[in-house]
TrEMBL record, chain A:
Entry keywords, A to Z: Iron, Iron-sulfur, Metal-binding
Keyword Lyase recorded: no
Protein name: 4Fe-4S dicluster domain-containing protein
Keyword ATP-binding in annotation: no
Lineage: Bacteria, Bacillati, Actinomycetota, Actinomycetes, Micrococcales
TrEMBL record, chain B:
Name of the protein described by the UniProt record: NADH:ubiquinone oxidoreductase-like 20kDa subunit domain-containing protein
Domain of life: Bacteria
Domain annotation NADH:ubiquinone oxidoreductase-like 20kDa subunit: ranges: 22-158
Key words of the record: Oxidoreductase
Keyword Oxidoreductase included in the entry's annotation: yes
Organism of this sequence: Actinotalea lenta
PANTHER family, per the entry: COENZYME F420-REDUCING HYDROGENASE, GAMMA SUBUNIT (PTHR42845), HYDROGENASE SMALL SUBUNIT (PTHR42845:SF1)
Gene3D superfamilies assigned to the protein according to its UniProt record, in alphabetical order: NADH:ubiquinone oxidoreductase-like, 20kDa subunit (3.40.50.700)
Organism taxonomic ancestry: Bacteria, Bacillati, Actinomycetota, Actinomycetes, Micrococcales
Pfam families: Oxidored_q6
Amino acid sequence: MTDGPRIIGRDQLARLVEVLTARGYAVVAPTVRAGAVVLDEVVGADDLPWGVGDVQDAGTYRLRERDDEAVFGQAAAVRAVKPVLFPADELIWRGHRSGTDFAVTDREGSPQRPVAFLGVRDCDLRALARHDEVLAGRAFADTRYQRRRAGTFLAAVTCAEPGGTCFCTSMGGGPHPENGYDLALTELLDPHRFVVEVGSDTGADVLAELDSEPAGAQDLAAVHDVVAHATESMGRSMDTEGLRDLLYASAESPVWDEVGNRCLTCMNCTMVCPTCFCTTVEDVSALGSADAERRRVWDSCFSEEFAHIHGGSLRTEVRSRYRQWITHKLAAWQDQFGSLGCVGCGRCITWCPVGIDITAEAAKLRAAAPLTVGGAR
Amino acid sequence: MFDESLKSSARPKLAVWKFASCDGCQLSLLNCEEELLTVAGAVSIAYFPEATRGVVEGPYDVSLVEGSVTTPEEIERIAQIREMSRVVVTLGACATSGGIQALRNFADVAEFRSVVYAHPEYLSTLARSTPISAHISVDLELRGCPIDKGQLLEVLGALVEHRRPRIPSYSVCAECKRRGTVCVAVAHGTPCLGPVTQAGCGALCPAYERGCYGCFGPQNTPNTASLSDHLVATGMSPEMAMRVYRTFNAASEPFRRESERQERAVVASGKGNAR
């Protein structure tokens, strides 16, 4: 039955949440919280953002009421998959002191239910692929990440309405999920239905529990139209030609001074970035307790402490921190992992309190670069 | 600091001192209800008038100092406290930056005195409210109005364990993002000082959909000018942009500089009451 894309009705979305829940997953999907669409645990399809849209631009995000009932009619949610699979604060071990002895008593932390993500986008999937490589694909794997990741179910959706800060098409992606999903849904209106593509055996098993029928040529043409429209609706773009060399040649660019004057070093960009993976390790002990914990918490190259080594911080100036971040994202990441560290989700642009725009900064660097660098100017 | 000087003390002797302040920060110690017995077991509370009339004479291993210096007597008293304390930790915005009472630093205290008091001649007060660090060397400063109870316990724990306390100097935004709070500035348009303010409160106000009002004072590298420019560009008056920095940490250097920059803008525009 999974030979080709199938169609499910609007009511089957509730069934999908039920099926995933019955299979033991915590279902994490877009939902409205505190004036934004976030990815969070939902208990039923009623928790999904039916008829809710968003307006995103540099440093600003607002919900809006849609004039239709679309449920996935928003751009990327505030928080991506990252906080679930790569928690902001995670126990590495817990230990106990008795006399002069010390023993590790816990390396696991509390067990987590496997998570089924519903409604993640292609940018999220590509960011996840980056994390898979960085965290689980190298000599020393993050076993906690691996364990969580292995049990994860991914029901992605086609991004029908990219936001004002989106530029995934510049970074090798697009509105339609291409890889790494169990199921991929494309929402169609009039009548309200979803075209479902299967990406794994588990996905096929889940789909088999829903009422579906083969998608017709008309449905597939409609999917094509949605994708084509979304591809043309990117709010931003980035020229990636020769980007790596451009960044390296721009080490002393005057652009850093200018952006350094605006950057707040608040860390928001790195925290919302779905690929940023820097952490620090903290030892925690409570007053009067013989127990201690070692925890791993999100860190950021925008703090002075981050680059603190013997003798002081390497990056006392704001300009050098912004340079470090964008150079890693767009250039050094290519040397390190063979891909761009940016998937074009636009979150760093939207959630920067003063609206610093990575695409604009890259363009300024290109404009300020010597003619010989980065291909065509 | 904590690891070297206290190694000989099995149970450090703790003193709590009050200068110009509202008592809220030292109350935070008493508010450690569940942990209070643990605290009392881990340190010897030798001098703490708000909690007990019992006094154990100095010297002390640790002095927690609340409040700012606003009178000539306090200048002498803080020097004496430094003399008899191995470690001095300031508690809260008053002790660390001068507190709300440092608003006098931007005005004429003689005028205030004459307006408020029937007999101003009985009053002996300084023209400026200053932080403890303006008078003595301070080993550690805890921020906030009031301080965070968890941070106080962390410092006392570090003291007893002879380790470095975990007191972050980065922005409140990091705490918002780690706990998953939706940004009130970006998503609601609520003015928020989180990006320029030091973490430590757990990003309390934004968790209740309010902007951070900066009670923990400036973060390690605060770009107040950029934030103010953005606030003014998105509709805040320069007068208000000045006032948001004139609260609990008005006299902290970065906040003072920024409020004075906005004050000059107000004066230049000829609008509003710049004080």
